[in-house]
Amino acid sequence: MRLRLDQKPEFFVSADISTQQHEVKDMTEDNRTVFLHNDDVHLVLIEETDAPTLLRGMNDTGTTRFLNRVDMPTSLDFEREWVRGLYTSTNKLVLGIWMVESQKLIGTISLNKLCYRNGTAILGIAIFDTTHHGRGIGTSAITMLLEHAFTRMNLRAVKLSVFSHNARALRCYKRCGFEVVGTIPNWVFVDGKYRDEIIMVVRRRRAH
Fold first, then answer.
1. Hey, which end of the chain has fewer CB within 10 Å, N or C?
2. How far is CA 127 from CA 53, 115, 134, 144, 160, in A?
3. CATH superfamily of the domain spanning 22-155
4. Domain spans of the chain?
């Protein structure tokens, strides 16, 4: 799915979920296993060889100042162990964001706390390479994953939280159909100030 920056998607699902098509490309040119894809971005399985890239991203304050994590350095061993446990659980789906043009992993995207009884999940995304910010890549990756969540996993709603100082992410999430449902004032301490946490939700719409 290609999405213009001024275009807001609507996620429809037919009454028969099984009729939806799931297009899968097996490998990238660099022999990466691709789970979802469009012309510009692939969502790939994360491999242990990605640990150095993850390490750089998670130790970069330009990235972590927007994430809800402890401000302590991580190690290569920690990242390798994290990768080993990614695909051993059914309550999360974590994929790498792979740029087709550069054949490079630039970030991660995930559905966490998957609850099939409620049909809900929590979205997380991080793009480590700042040269790819502001190019619509996050919008493209999120739209692909939401389409999969609603038409293949039969989820009905996806939630996320974003900090009030992350204006770029707020714009991206709104383009992807998320709406603000609540705000927790002064929830996180970033760059010497307390910031609000904004809760957003996007819901599946059933076609008539």
1. C
2. 11, 25, 11, 16, 16
3. Gcn5-related N-acetyltransferase (GNAT) (3.40.630.30)
4. 22-155
Q: Which helix (H) or strand (E) holds 44?
A: strand 41-44
Measured between alpha carbons, how far is 204 from 178 in angstroms, rounded to an integer?
11
Give the model confidence (pLDDT) of 47-63 as tens digits. Answer: 999 999 999 888 776 66
Q: What is the DSSP letter of 185?
A: E
Select from 164, 89, 168 the least CA-distant residue to 121. 89
Amino acid letter, 154: N
pLDDT digit string (tens) for 146-201? Answer: 999 999 999 999 999 999 989 999 999 999 999 999 999 999 888 889 999 999 99
CA–CA dist 84, 151 (Å, integer): 28
